[in-house]
Amino acid sequence: GNSVTQMEGPVTLSEEAFLTINCTYTATGYPSLFWYVQYPGEGLQLLLKATKADDKGSNKGFEATYRKETTSFHLEKGSVQVSDSAVYFCALHREYGNKLVFGAGTILRVKS
Amino acid sequence: DAGVTQSPTHLIKTRGQHVTLRCSPISGHKSVSWYQQVLGQGPQFIFQYYEKEERGRGNFPDRFSARQFPNYSSELNVNALLLGDSALYLCASSPDRGGDWDEQYFGPGTRLTVT
What we know:
The complex is a heterodimer of chains A (112) and B (115).
Chain A: E1 3-6, E2 11-14, E3 19-21, E4 23-26, E5 32-38, E6 44-50, E7 56-59, E8 62-65, E9 75-77, E10 86-93, E11 101-102, E12 106-111
Parallel strand pairs in A: 2-12
Antiparallel strand pairs in A: 1-4, 3-9, 5-6, 5-10, 7-8, 8-9, 10-11, 10-12
Chain B: E1 5-7, E2 10-13, E3 19-24, E4 31-37, E5 44-50, E6 53-57, E7 64-68, E8 74-78, E9 87-94, E10 105-106, E11 110-114
Parallel strand pairs in B: 2-11
Antiparallel strand pairs in B: 1-3, 3-8, 4-5, 4-9, 5-6, 7-8, 9-10, 9-11
């Protein structure tokens, strides 16, 4: 079946450090891939997406590239801020309809 | 524009009881999906409804049911509550433009605690 595996957290970084959160997936065919962010007390927000191999999604300084050969969609940011502290979820969409399959989430803590 | 709203925000129930959670989608959105997020895990898909019809169902027991009303709002019902039903229940709405994928907009969730 379809599944998503993320690196375990929490990830703790100092402000302006480089961020990588690893995400790999298992799916038949070619799923669409997403990163969602959940700030404390809020719902999930779509951060970025990629719908086909080699696509790069980007938003608010975050980037992720759809790598079919390694079935990966790692999230990166060159310089994190305290305001980036949140839980980040990698997800895929493969089937008809709106069903998303999520990873377990990675807590990011950024210290000033 | 208002986002997706859910009520109540928090809820405490006893094992064996029944609970109803409510969701109002973004104006103009016709599709509503429900997810369960257990502490420390990612959200798991429960249901999707579109135009009052069930379009998809996740791997949840029959104790879980839902419906969508003519105004596109939705209710999630859970019967015979178990301790393991304690979770954040998320509702997401999407415009459903007829394609294979629509961006989903999530509400803040309802935190259900079963004691």
